[in-house]
Write a structure and sequence with these properties.
The complex is a heterodimer of chains A (about 120) and B (about 800). Chain A is an alpha/beta fold and about 120 residues long. Chain A contains 4 helices and 5 strands, in the order ββαβαβαβα. Chain A is globular and about 30 Å long. The chains are: A alpha/beta (about 120), B alpha+beta (about 800). At the A-B interface, helix 2 of A face helix 19 of B.
Chain lengths: ~120, ~800
């Protein structure tokens, strides 16, 4: 079923912020993937994802995060996530994504965290 | 059977049915065999009739004339009815009550206790020969008021007694007869009646002197009858017969589908209730003949007519409901008419059944509409006298009203679900509100109607309004159809100012409201149905269109490859659970697409423990299916040389991390069963936690830590991994499941959810593992309401059984008890 999923991009300082809205599942994951790919290929490696309006995420949606994290970190950047609603946050936690990604209470925190530590803390390999 | 055979069968059934319908008088012989009750029954009835007409018969002496001959003689002598009429109701009982002051009352009842004739007046009255007497205007006015009052206070009884909606018209106004001023009303004949009724009231010196109600054959009616029958009646009969044939057809198909498992059995119950209620109302309204109290006056032919109407309503309800599990399936008219088959049966058969129903509908409308229009127009434009002089009085007005109502019923019941799609619900609701408003207005227009009846009708119609507004489901739409009868009558009443229909309308509203009340109760007891009904029409229509579009576009591309892949994948899943002492195991995997990324498996570990596994590969479709196969292969390779769940998971993670693209990962739950100690070691690699329901019904999700497989290198994975051990008491249930279970969605995007899942399992905990599994699947299906399935649904149910059985037989585990932490 075609889902409503929207991405709004914003540049705050050097941080590229993706505001996700709606359902991120196998049908809509390619939209997000294309958007991320375009920015990463153009050299944006400080990426924050605002999940405050993300109502659902499936494993395919989670996979998008995984497919870019290595490349981004290799270039000294990171993907940080903020503002997840409780239900989506639970999906992240069950899968153990909170061990891989830095997850913040709000998207603003995620953006601000790049000022303190622009690169990943290295708990990933 | 071939199509032609079916057609012949239907032609035969239709012919037989139309014969029965056309010969409603076949039921008459019921009344031919003399009295059906004791003398005291007739006397009680007669006294009640007399009392209803205002005669004070208490203490009056009663005398009986019960011979048939005298009744005949009486009738023929007075030329009131023809012998032919009386032969149809041959046993007549006449009671004469003698009161003081030369007063007398005479009531003639037929064998069923229905009054044939009523007279209230003076015994051996001497006619005063004052022919020259001319009342002045004041006297005439006074007499008119008295007579009208008398008529008004009696007409309700007259209508109830003489089978319903015979409109009375004033046919003689203030005719001077001796010293009496006489008023005469004549009824319009009822649908099955060959007679009209004449009510005469004599007023003298400011009081009602004589009150006479008697049947009268209308000669001109007979001539009209034949032409009427040849057009309207047979037309309607044909429509009814076609409809009934369609009903039989639909019934057969429904039964077939039930046995083929294409319809849930609960459907039978629902249909039985709907049909039963309609039949019951039909019976109560008309056919209660003898079972009901004697003042429930009725006419068999009319009762039969009613029965037919209600049978039809039931049939319509059946077909509408059988058109699908919910209103949703009946909403797309094009599809319903034959684009898709009827209940997934043969297209040709389906289109025949539909054509029959449609033809019935069209015939009913076609036959009724012109008459309806004519009576409406003439009723609005002219008063009764003008209509009569213009020859616009339509024969069988009452019959006409019921036929037009039948047409309205058809339109409502058939088209409502369709209208809901193509007409704005607001407009429809507005229309219903207008109808209901008309009903209320019509009710309140009734002069001297008991206030409590008015209140009852108001409350009932309010209830109905709420129901139709809130629910708007199949049942509501059929009810709307049924309601259209009293409503359309009330509408007539309001527009035409006819005062003959209130009793009808109110009685019907009351009965229909009872139906609604029952429906309410049933709805409340069935939460799934409630949810179904709460979906708005827009949601349903939108969802249906989306679903079709999605299904069609996907299907074409993938069908061929998927069929093969599906077969291969099905073979990967174990067909039988292993035998584990003291445990029952049951699993299911239902892919959302042809192939899925979910997996369940049973592994015998090196230490002898059986281990249940449920896994979910990220994404969906072919890629997920391929990785699922890979996971299965790795699992099987690993289990042989290892007894430690943590180690198995860690190695599996490493292998998957090496081969899978980064965006893919696998989540997995493992549960190793130690049969002897009943300890189940649980491991959760990014998967949803196992549900554990104790025999007491307490449910919890077993917490442990672990990341998804293939996400990170094994050192990191291993650091984050913890195991949990659950001790399973006999009767405990544990369920491993994929997110397809808890994230199953209904068309409103609500998730099935953990709480609901846990409560379903808890409620079913006393059943066997297989039953629990099936129960959860059922609940999910019911919840989804046919919504597109997003994700594979996989579930593995583990139930600890009573150990005593195994122990008694002397079975002992032949391997060492393994610790959960090893």
């Amino acid at each position: 079923m075609p889902e409503s999923f929207q991405i709004r991009e914003e540049l705050i300082g050097e941080v590229r912020v993706f505001h996700l809205k709606g359902f991120l599942d196998a049908h809509t994951a390619p939209i997000f993937e294309a958007a991320l790919h375009a920015r990463v290929a153009a050299g944006s490696f400080r990426i924050a994802v605002d999940g405050s309006e993300l109502t659902y995420i499936s494993s395919a949606g989670l996979g998008v995060f995984m497919s870019f994290i290595e490349e981004v970190r290799e270039h000294g950047g990171d993907i940080r996530i903020g503002g997840l609603v409780a239900k989506v946050r639970q999906v992240f936690d069950i899968l153990g994504f909170d061990e891989i990604f830095q997850i913040f209470t709000t998207a603003g925190d995620a953006v601000a965290s790049f000022d303190a530590s622009p690169a990943a803390e290295g708990e990933d390999d | 059977m071939k199509k032609i055979e079916w057609l012949l069968l239907f032609a035969l059934a239709a012919a037989g049915l139309s014969y029965v319908v056309s010969r409603a008088d076949l039921l008459e012989p019921l009344a031919r065999y003399g009295p059906i009750a004791s003398e005291s029954f007739y006397e009680t009835t007669a006294r009640r009739v007399a009392a209803d007409f205002g005669a004070g018969v208490e203490g009056w002496a009663a005398s009986t004339t019960s011979e048939r001959d005298s009744a005949l003689r009486l009738a023929t002598e007075r030329s009131l009815v023809s012998p032919e009429w009386l032969l149809r109701s041959p046993y007549a009982v006449t009671f004469t009550f003698d009161g003081p002051d030369r007063q007398m009352c005479r009531v003639t009842l037929d064998s069923r206790g229905t009054p044939l004739r009523f007279f209230l007046g003076l015994r051996d009255e001497v006619q005063a020969p004052v022919n020259a007497w001319e009342p002045d205007a004041r006297e005439v006015e006074e007499a008119r008021a008295i007579a009208f009052d008398a008529f008004r206070s009696q007409w309700r009884f007259a209508i109830a007694a003489l089978t319903a909606d015979l409109g009375f018209q004033l046919t003689a106004d203030a005719v001077v007869d001796g010293r009496d001023i006489v008023f005469e009303w004549t009824s319009k004949p009822g649908p099955a009646a060959m007679v009209a009724w004449k009510l005469t009231i004599h007023v003298r010196d400011g009081a009602v002197r004589r009150f006479d109600l008697a049947p009268q054959i209308l000669e001109n009616l007979r001539a009209q009858t034949s032409s009427y029958e040849s057009t309207v009646t047979y037309g309607v009969i044909a429509a009814v017969a076609i409809g009934l044939a369609g009903f039989v057809w639909a019934f057969v198909l429904t039964v077939l589908n039930l046995f083929r498992g294409r319809l849930p059995w609960s459907f039978v119950l629902r249909t039985a209730i709907v049909v039963g209620v309609f039949l019951l109302t039909g019976f109560l309204t008309g056919a209660g003949l003898r079972a009901l109290p004697p003042d429930w006056y009725s006419h068999p032919a009319r009762a039969f007519n009613f029965l037919m109407i209600h049978l039809l309503s039931g049939a319509i309800a059946t077909v509408l409901i059988s058109a699908g599990r919910s209103a949703r399936d009946a909403t797309d008219f094009r599809r319903w008419l034959g684009v898709e088959d009827f209940l997934k049966l043969d297209w040709a058969k389906a289109s025949v059944a539909r054509a029959m129903w449609t033809a019935g509908l069209i015939a009913a409308i076609w036959v009724s509409a012109p008459y309806l229009a004519l009576s409406w127009i003439s009723g609005v434009l002219f008063d009764s006298a003008t209509r009569q002089s213009l020859g616009l009085n339509i024969p069988f007005g009452g019959s006409l009203a019921s036929q037009s109502s039948l047409a309205v019923l058809f339109v409502f019941a058939f088209c409502f679900p369709v209208l809901k799609v193509y007409v704005k619900p607001r407009l429809l609701r507005g229309f219903l509100a207008v109808l209901l408003g008309a009903a209320a207005a019509g009710t309140f227009r009734v002069v001297d109607f008991p206030w409590h009846a008015v209140a009852l009708a108001a409350i009932c119609s309010g209830l109905l309004m709420v129901y139709v507004y809130v629910r708007f489901g199949v049942l509501a739409s059929v009810l709307g159809g049924i309601l259209a009868i009293p409503l359309s009558r009330a509408l007539f009443l309001t527009v035409l100012g006819d005062v003959t229909m209130q009793t009808w309308g109110i009685a019907f509203l009351t009965v229909a409201s009872l139906v609604v009340a029952i429906a309410f109760v049933l709805d409340m007891r069935n939460p799934a149905r409630e949810e179904e009904q709460q979906l708005s029409d827009e949601e349903l229509a939108l969802f249906e269109r989306e679903r079709q579009r999605a299904v069609l576009s996907q299907r074409d591309q993938m069908l061929g490859e998927f069929a093969l892949a599906q077969q291969a994948q099905e073979r990967i899943l174990p067909s039988q659970p292993p035998y584990v002492e003291g445990f029952e195991i049951s699993a299911i995997c239902k892919p959302a697409l042809h192939v899925g990324g979910d997996l369940y498996d049973y592994l015998r570990l090196h230490d002898g423990r059986w281990t249940c596994c449920v896994a979910d590969v990220s994404g969906k479709g072919v890629s997920a299916a391929l990785y699922m196969t890979l996971t299965k292969g790795l699992l099987n390779a690993l289990r042989l040389d290892r007894g430690d769940l943590m180690e198995i998971a860690t190695v599996l993670n490493q292998r998957l991390y090496e081969v899978m693209r980064r965006r893919y990962f696998v989540t997995m739950s493992l549960a190793a069963i130690d049969s002897a100690s009943r300890n189940v070691e649980v491991l959760r690699a990014g998967h949803l936690p196992m549900l554990h329901v104790r025999v007491s019904g307490e449910a919890r999700f077993v917490e442990s830590q672990g990341m998804g497989l293939g996400l990170t290198p094994s050192t990191f994975f291993r650091q984050k991994l913890t195991a949990a051990t659950v001790r399973m008491q006999p009767g405990d249930v544990a369920v491993l499941y994929s997110d397809g279970v808890t994230e199953a969605m209904n068309p409103r995007r609500e998730e099935f959810g953990e709480a609901r899942f846990a409560s379903v399992v808890a409620a079913a905990r006393e059943s066997t593992a297989i039953e629990i599994r099936d129960r959860v699947m059922e609940e999910i299906l019911r919840f989804q309401l046919g919504a597109e399935v997003h994700d594979d649904i996989t579930m593995l149910v583990l139930k600890a059984t009573d150990a005593s059985m195994d122990e008694r037989i002397g079975i002992r585990p032949d391997w060492d008890t393994a610790d959960s932490g090893d």
